[in-house]
Write a structure and sequence with these properties.
Length: 124
Amino acid sequence: RARLVNIDLPWLEQALQQALQRSRGHALLIHGPRGVGQFELALAVAGAWLCETHRGAAPACGQCDGCRLFAARTHPDLRPLLPEVLQLELGWITDEDTPDGEAGKRKPSKDIRIDAVRDAIAFT
């Protein structure tokens, strides 16, 4: 039984196994209703793909260099694209980390901003 990023979400295990059995691409788009665990599923797939020990099998080992970089959110091959509100909620950024030092000047966006998409394109 696979575990999803240290969170037991049994209703997503089949989706995780299906995602890992498919060929990898340069990006993965996962969408679903709020609260069902799609972000955790995306992290589990990304973690498994970036694991140097298990090489795409779930769960990731959590010990190799790839897993340590992934856990620290510094893996050079990982670039989540999320609305700022969700990034704040999940702890991926803080108010001080908002783009262009704009903290306090505008509310965090509920949508993925075009600047974030352009940054992701430049990243790839």
